[in-house]
Write a structure and sequence with these properties.
The structure holds two protein chains of two kinds. Chain A is an alpha/beta fold. Chain A has three domains: 150 residues, 3-Layer(aba) Sandwich (Rossmann fold), CATH 3.40.50.12780; 139 residues, Rossmann fold (3-Layer(aba) Sandwich), CATH 3.40.50.12780; 102 residues, ANL, C-terminal domain (GMP Synthetase, Chain A, domain 3). Helices cover 30% and strands 27% of the residues of chain A. Chain A has a seven-stranded mixed β-sheet. In chain A, a hairpin with a 5-residue loop joins β18 and β19. Chain A is globular, with a radius of gyration of 23 Å. In chain A, 44% of the residues are buried. By secondary structure, chain B is an all-alpha fold. Chain B has one domain: Non-ribosomal Peptide Synthetase Peptidyl Carrier Protein, Chain A (Orthogonal Bundle), CATH 1.10.1200.10. Helix content of chain B is 54%, strand content 0%. Chain B contains four helices and no strands. In chain B, α1 packs across α4. Chain B starts with a helix and ends with a helix. The chains are: A alpha/beta, B mainly alpha. At the A-B interface, α7 and α11 of A face α2 of B. Chain A: It holds the Pfam family AMP-binding. Chain A: InterPro entries: AMP-bd_C_sf (IPR045851), AMP-dep_synth/lig_dom (IPR000873), ANL_N_sf (IPR042099), ATP-dep_AMP-bd_enzyme (IPR050237). Chain A: It comes from Sneathiella chungangensis. Chain A: This is AMP-binding protein. Chain B: This is Acyl carrier protein.
């Protein structure tokens, strides 16, 4: 039965109900409450009003979020738990709440360790007084804050329950996406938690592992990065097929949709949305031209430039928001996506700011200047052109171009997620610029011409 | 160089579109992921798919040693060889 997040801990849900499966053991609702209560007490003891919540386990995230809310804390949700990202947010006044042991913040760290309080009593939370601050790539290369009140989050979860609840039934949920992003948090963690369905705390990296853990008839929460890379496994038997496969983050190729259906049962349900607007629309790609249908409560329109605008129940102002996408709109409000409209790019379903990558790259001792671009064939790939320093060229001579590129990826990795690490590299004496000093995109792209897929 | 290891190095380079590197420059014992060759989790997914398609073997996730099998070209060669033997048996 669906219970809104704010009412969950004070509800009469059975203490024996399973919440999550951790290392093949089911954690019950009573144990979940005892863990939240213990964590709540430890947060209160700190006397802080805000925390940074970054966890490996989706279950730990759920306990941390509810404990922080109940302790009266505002919760910052960084897009990942990389050291460079945490360093931006964690202070003595805003400690890190995490299940990851972190030396760098050991004094400012409240460890989510599964400790249980003897007594766990709860009142309902005020959904307007609780909030999560998400962060997405900003246009300046700095992460941009996107606040969400628990009331907004619940509104959205309620709609998702109405639209998908019947198909989901009692299905357990496993995912290949992180709960530090809004899609993963809703579909892999908070929706199952609200609906009383079992969820798995892992973010599975390989399909074989996910399928080894999956009970028959489990819901899969994934992304184009994984659904375009399904190994040649045997299809799931009819009795074990997934009731729903959710995917988001970027366009799912038609072929990948068909392969997924052949392998797991249903055509993937693609959720189109953003951190700012929440889920906007959904579709199952029966044909490549199947349009996205808006979720209940969402309105859509396009402007003269073709940019898609949405009016959402889940945003602060309840006003029209411009998306980063170009769309073809049909009279009934459904639409097809036709490309990105601004300087952000999507790689492996992650919104990435090229300016941010360039900023971190030029911070390297080996790099004087850098340009990052997206190559579109055979799939969208990040490429970097770097002007090297003297030291950079010395390393280039020593270890070669391939290993230098890999070395620079490693230098970037404390600050950028895998998807934001350039995969192709060119090293040049001077970045191509025109007479106004602007970078020449064509010349940059030409540096990568011809090398594609060479045997 | 061991012929089969060379074949796998070529497969790694081709599958992942690695540039500016020849099979000879990959050491059979160097680590494929993170350190060494510096491959990432997306590379692991693609390499897993390519190996299963090329050699017709099934990778069983319950195999606890999966990470060790994918550690280097040498361990991968040994893993594929033993899986194929098992299938032929």
């Amino acid at each position: 039965m669906y219970i809104p997040v704010s009412k969950l801990l004070a509800s009469d849900r059975s203490g024996a109900a399973a919440v999550a499966r951790i290392a093949r053991q089911d954690v019950t609702f009573a144990e979940f409450k005892a863990e939240v209560a213990d964590l709540r007490a430890r947060i209160k003891k700190r006397g802080v009003t805000q925390v940074v919540l970054a966890t490996e386990s989706s279950y730990a995230f759920a306990t941390g979020m509810l404990a922080a809310f109940d302790a009266g804390c505002r919760v910052t949700v960084p897009p990942n738990a990389l050291p460079g990202m945490l360093a931006r947010f964690v202070t003595p006044e805003c400690p890190l709440l995490s299940d990851i042991k972190d030396e760098a913040h050991s004094d400012d760290h409240i460890l989510i360790d599964g400790a249980k309080a003897a007594e766990a009593s709860f009142r309902e939370l005020d959904p307007d007084a609780c909030s999560l601050d998400f962060y997405t790539s900003g246009s300046t290369g700095e992460p941009k804050r996107v606040p969400k009140s628990l009331a907004q989050i619940e509104n959205e979860l309620t709609v998702l329950d109405q639209v998908f609840g019947a198909r989901l039934g009692a299905a357990a949920t496993l995912g290949t996406v992180s709960h530090q992003h809004i899609f993963g948090l809703y579909f892999k963690c908070l929706l199952p938690l609200s609906e009383g369905r079992l969820f798995f705390p892992e973010t599975f990296e390989i399909w074989e592992e996910l399928l080894a853990f999956a009970p028959p008839g489990a819901c899969i929460v994934s992304s184009p990065a994984h659904l375009t890379r399904i190994p040649p496994l045997d299809p799931l038997p009819t009795s074990a097929q997934a009731p729903v496969i959710f995917t988001a983050g970027g366009p799912l190729p038609f072929e990948a949709a068909q392969t997924s259906a052949w392998m797991f049962g249903p055509l993937p349900t693609e959720i189109y949305g953003s951190t700012e607007t929440g889920g906007i629309a959904h579709r199952q790609q029966e044909r490549a031209t199947t349009p996205f249908r808006p979720l209940p409560g969402m309105e859509t329109r396009v402007d003269e430039q073709g940019s898609l605008w949405v009016k959402s129940n889940y945003t602060d102002n309840g006003d029209w928001d411009k998306t980063n996408d170009i769309a073809e709109l049909f009279p009934d409000g459904s639409f097809l996506l036709a490309g990105r409209a601004n300087q952000f790019v999507k790689i492996e379903g992650k919104r990435i700011s090229l300016a941010e990558i360039e900023k971190f790259l030029t911070a390297s001792d080996l790099v004087k200047d850098a340009a990052v671009l997206v190559l579109t064939s055979p799939r969208d790939t990040l490429a970097a052109v770097a002007e090297l320093t003297e030291e950079g060229w010395r390393r280039h001579a020593e270890i070669g171009a391939f290993r230098l590129g890999r070395f620079l990826r490693k230098e970037l990795s404390p600050n950028l997620e895998n998807a934001a690490l350039p995969r192709r590299w060119r090293f040049v004496d001077r970045l191509p610029v025109n007479s106004q000093g602007k970078r020449q995109q064509t010349a940059l792209h030409e540096l990568f011409a011809g090398g594609e897929g060479a045997d | 160089m061991n012929e089969f290891e060379l074949e796998i190095k070529k497969l790694v380079i081709k599958t992942l579109n690695l540039e500016d590197i020849t099979p000879e420059e990959i050491d059979s014992e160097e680590r494929l992921f993170v350190d060494g060759l510096g491959l990432d989790s997306i590379d692991a997914l693609e390499l897993g798919v390519a190996i299963q398609k090329t050699y017709g073997i099934k990778i069983n996730a319950k195999n606890e040693d999966l990470k060790d099998h994918f550690a280097s070209v040498r361990s991968l060669a040994q893993f594929i060889t033993s899986e194929r033997k098992e299938m032929d048996a």
